[in-house]
Design a protein that fits this description.
The two termini are 30 Å apart. By secondary structure, the protein is α+β, with helices and mostly antiparallel strands. Strand 6 and strand 7 form a beta hairpin. It has one domain: FAD/NAD(P)-binding domain, CATH 3.50.50.60. It contains eight helices and 20 strands. Helix 1 packs parallel to helix 5, helix 1 packs parallel to helix 8 and helix 3 packs across helix 8. The longest helix is centred in the C-terminal third of the chain and has 21 residues. Strands 1, 2, 8, 9, 10, 11 and 20 form a seven-stranded mixed sheet that branches. Strands 5, 12, 13, 14, 15, 18 and 19 form a seven-stranded antiparallel sheet that branches. The chain binds flavin-adenine dinucleotide.
């Protein structure tokens, strides 16, 4: 029994990413007397805990924070070349790590570069912060009544600190928007037109950008809550169920190896869309749809040099925070007619070699990314082994994932569209767009999907409570039941707000 942990709490939260943080925040606001313990397997790598590592000014310190987030097999920072984990040929983005095995089964497409982060703040200590609203079929129809979904998304904006003006001084952003609008806006409703990307970022008074992580989601109200405690380096190995109801968690202290039982009235598992179903499966909680409808967004990228621009010699653009500030971030929304989500910016971790910026015109090269919505299939799934374990000792995963004919058709349409949009902005650097290896979007979702009724095709209710296990809530991109093409975090934080409100009501 580790002395670090309480014997019992009202709410145990597994995972400190933005969705676990959203539960902590809403509970701190609505049920301040409730005792809350948050367990995170990874270390604290930033200050305040959960802060985005891009806010760390010193490059060596930032690299150290990224390496420490790269899971149980993370190498020493000196073994970390250019932000690439050297364990396999496949590449992980800085701060993330890949599945060692089980990422692809012969004859299937697999998700070779689906990745995880293990640190306080989860992947949102490393993310790009794009927070677009879902549109058309991306939206969750059964939550639309009385504006419920819009209300939740607005709460998501509040918790994530979403803004649209942080890049308003970017010299090329208006030009890029104007050219994209001319190419894409015809026939679109106002909310679907080319616009500034909503981003979880704000500018400090001194002009520096601050990227939102779980620290922003938690806010002072959580940090100042004497009933809230965050335990890092704490692996939850099981959710306890008694008389059919969630009763607590089994936690392994990564510092000492000791295992402890922490009893709880409510348990929230917010451990990403692959490790949340893993923990439920390990706990013997196995609704039929658990791990199924796994979907990610095939990602197409293309780079162009902006045509006919005028250089503003005074423009400030050298992004010290990892993202060029010259071209801002522009959004081309998803529609059912054009089923791709477009993000146009200086890629901060480009998979393709961008030409070195012309010294006379820094920031004149922009990357375009189109993300495609997946055709949902029951058989696309993560499976868990009854005997083999992963590096944390939890059931090993095998990904079953195949693109359908429709998926391949959408990918081809996206390739044509990205060339069309790119040439509207400037001169292509390459003659063809590039399709990223599957999993690259880091937006894998659907594995603990929400549904209006328990009909075997969903794992949880519209409040995120797991069917058949009262008191157990799931959070994260796994809960999203639709195939989104847009970045999913705003949506999953919005869904977490609803679950947290339900727990707050249950505690009253
Ligand atoms: C480079 C990059 C760029 C991205 N850009 C965007 C973007 O622009 N927009 C967007 O919407 N999304 C983006 N994402 C994805 C985004 O970060 C995720 O959608 C978001 O972080 C998911 O939040 P979460 O709370 O569900 O899970 P996570 O942030 O993954 O957090 C889950 C946490 O649970 C912990 N955990 C797992 N298992 C256990 C266990 N058994 N016990 C204890 N702890 C456990 C993990 O260590 C992790 O810290 C990006 C991600 C990356 C890495």
């Amino acid at each position: 029994m580790s002395e670090r942990y309480p014997e019992s709490v009202d709410v145990a939260i597994v995972g400190s990413g933005p969705t676990g943080a959203a539960y902590a925040r809403i509970l701190s606001e609505r049920a301040p007397a409730a005792t809350i313990a948050m367990f995170e397997v990874g270390p604290t790598v930033s200050n305040p805990p959960g802060a985005h590592v891009k806010n760390i000014a010193d490059p060596a310190e930032r690299a150290q924070a990224q390496v420490r987030s790269e899971g149980p097999l993370a190498r020493d920072v000196t073994d970390h070349v250019g932000g690439i984990v050297k364990t396999t040929q496949r590449r992980a983005r800085p701060g993330t790590f890949l599945l060692e095995e089980g990422f692809q089964v012969e004859g299937e497409d697999g998700l070779p570069v689906a990745a995880f982060s293990s640190n306080v703040g989860g992947m949102a200590a490393h993310w790009t912060g794009a927070c677009p609203r879902p549109n058309d079929s991306e939206r969750i129809g059964f939550l639309e009544d009385d504006g419920v979904f819009e209300d939740l998304l607005a709460e998501g904006d509040r918790l994530l600190g979403v803004t649209t003006d942080a890049f308003d001084s970017s010299p090329y952003a208006p030009l890029i928007r104007e050219r994209l609008a001319a190419a894409a806006d015809a026939g679109r409703d106002p909310h679907e037109r080319v616009q500034r990307m909503p981003l979880a970022v704000h500018r400090r008074d001194d002009g520096r950008l601050v990227w939102s992580g779980s620290d922003v989601v938690m806010g002072d109200v959580t940090r100042d809550n004497p009933n809230f405690h965050l335990f890092d380096e704490s692996l939850v190995t099981s959710v306890l169920v008694e008389n059919g109801r969630a009763a607590g968690v089994l936690v392994s202290d990564r510092r000492t190896g000791e295992s402890s039982e922490v009893r709880a009235r409510f348990v929230v598992v917010a451990a990403d869309a692959l490790r949340t179903p893993q923990l439920l499966w390990a706990s013997g909680i196995r609704p039929a749809a658990l791990g199924r409808y796994l979907n990610d967004q095939a990602q197409i990228v293309f780079a162009v040099r902006i045509r006919d621009f005028t250089i503003d010699a005074d423009a400030e653009g050298a992004g010290s925070t990892g993202l060029s500030e010259y071209s801002g971030v522009t959004w081309v929304p998803f529609t059912d007619e054009a089923p791709f989500h477009g993000q146009v910016m200086q890629l901060d971790a480009s998979p393709i070699k961008l030409a070195d910026d012309d010294p006379a015109a820094p920031g004149s090269i922009v990357g375009l990314g189109l993300f495609c919505a997946k055709d949902l299939q029951w058989q696309d799934r993560v499976e868990f082994s009854a005997d083999a374990t992963d590096a944390y000792g939890l059931p090993a995963m095998t990904i079953h994932y195949t693109l359908t004919d429709r998926d391949r058709e959408v990918v081809e349409r996206a390739k044509a569209e990205i060339v069309r949009l790119g040439t509207a902005i400037g001169e292509p650097l390459d003659d063809r767009p590039f399709q990223m290896p599957l999993g690259a979007s880091l937006h894998y979702q659907g594995t603990t999907r929400m549904g209006p009724v328990d009909d075997g095709t969903s794992v949880c209710s519209r409040e995120s409570e797991v069917w058949g296990t009262p008191g157990l809530f799931v959070a994260g991109n796994g809960v999203i039941p639709t195939a989104t093409a847009c970045n999913p975090t705003l949506t999953s934080v919005a869904l977490a707000v609803s679950g947290a409100r339900a727990i707050a009501a249950g505690l009253a």
